[in-house]
């Protein structure tokens, strides 16, 4: 549906809590590495002697606590390859599922109602999506392997 004159076409804004998700991952990795996670100081532990022009966050890129914080002693994890970008192979599925879920809040069935009850239902759906996919909790089994695919046919294309 095209927006009317003077309208921008935006009807709903939903929030994906990606920062909450990544903070939980870095917190758990920091705890695994042996940092004191009672404060946020461990987030700022940086590698020394690296080849990048920025000092990489140890909890973001290392799977071990490197000796003397040296990059050469850091065994890389699957969270971030460089301390700036996220590993799509490991974080991508939840990111994508979250976006699909949030889109479903608006587009599955009919559009949300603008009544207070309809808006509350939309916000509850947004919260449910973030709790399901933008957290470290295990994804509900009923959402996994239900034979849905991105393909129109299950036959191989030749």
What does this structure look like?
Helix 3 packs antiparallel against helix 4 (116-133). By secondary structure, this protein is mainly α. The chain is elongated. It has helices spanning 18-33, 58-61, 88-107, 116-133.
Notable characteristics:
single chain, mainly alpha, 4 helices
Compact overview of the structure:
The chain is mainly α. It has helices at 18-33, 58-61, 88-107, 116-133.
Low-confidence stretches: 148-158
What general form does the structure show?
Answer: elongated
Put simply, the count of helices is 4
Mean pLDDT: 85
Head-to-tail CA distance between termini: 37 Å
Q: Topology as H/E string?
A: HHHH
Radius of gyration: 21 Å
> Which structural class should the secondary elements be placed in?
mainly alpha
Helical percentage: 25-40%
The biggest beta sheet reads:
none
Q: How many strand elements? A: 0
Determine the strand fraction and express it as a percent band.
under 5%
Helix and strand topology:
Layout: H1 18-33, H2 58-61, H3 88-107, H4 116-133
Helix pairs in contact: 3-4
